Amino acid sequence: MLRQIKVRELCTELENKLMELQYSEDSLRRYRKVFCEFSEYAGDCDYSQSKGTDFLVWKFQQLGGFVTDGEDSKNEMYYFRAIRSLAEYYNFGVLFRRHDFKGEIIWPAPFKDVTENFLRYEVECGCSYAYHDRCRTVIKDFILFLDSVGVHSLDDITAELISRFAETMVGLAPVTVAERISALRQYFKYAYLHEYVKDPIEAYLPYPPQRLRTKLPTVWTEEQIEAIVHAVDTTTPVGKRDYAIVLLGARLGLRIGDILKLTLNDIDWNKKQLSIIQSKTREPLTLPLPEDVGWAVIDYLKNGRPITDCPNIFVVHNAPYQGCPVKSTLRNSIHKILKRAGIPIDKTKRCGWHSLRHSLATNLLQNGVDTSTISDILGHTDPEVTRHYLKVDMDGLRKCALEVEVNDDVKEENL
Asked: Can you give the pTM of this predicted structure?
């Protein structure tokens, strides 16, 4: 059973948390407005997520709908944000400021043991941090969903509830849906095998269709890469950070997750090399540090990075300056850089930070570097993975084309 607390008291707790996290005065003002209205609406009632939902419905009817543009849309967005923040803080004791929150979650008592043990088991099995993070996120969302319908035990989960939760994923990319369902399946399977639940509830989960990797990677030519590098605005602290990140991706082909986890201990300035344990494969990778990359990192550390005790080289640029930049923010950054470089963005393709990695591999291939060397540079555990880049080496493919032999009888028919 979750704790009982009055709506007004929970709002006060969360407001104090927002102040502790150094939210801006403008954000605090907007949150306080929602907290005040919600407290008046609830009166002396205990908090529940359904009470918050009822408040949003009431507010929606009162306003005659929510607007989607202009300053009013920002004000009204905070109704949803504040009520969701209350639900997250009530259930987990923390505030998820971003989608990819990395802080410590205090799991609700009914799910505490099974969830903590499952996540610990995933780490012991050598799962990557990215997979661990996806598991934690989908479990958090699932627990919030259960709370919204008044369910606080895995044993009370039904096939209907699983179906309703699956419906909340409508609109997500198929690969994202498959990943979230897979994470839940592993979670439920662990719960059943370790006797946290009586029935194998993973059987209720649907099996999304398997999708093969059919899309070509998005790649930029060497000229476009240089245009991207020179398009970064290095006159601002954030620009200095993004410039160093662009060079690490373009020159070394590092995954964005590995770039964001870099610390000063990963760089040997005397040997001019970088050594990391890759998040995806858990394999070590050592690469030479090009001069322009090294100076870009130094410039950011000296002239752009906020003063913080965070061990990461690259940090967020809003107080309290803890943790690495969120990927949604960086995605907007790369799109702005592409626009400044005059490179059109194809909305049917992914044009994110990973395109720098794809481009390095493809350009090396077109310059005659063998796939085994490229595999070593990119840190692939299986050299066959590198052959994916052969798909976009059109010049190389043309060299492999065979001349078609035409029979004499066919030639005569076409005369």
From this structure: 0.57
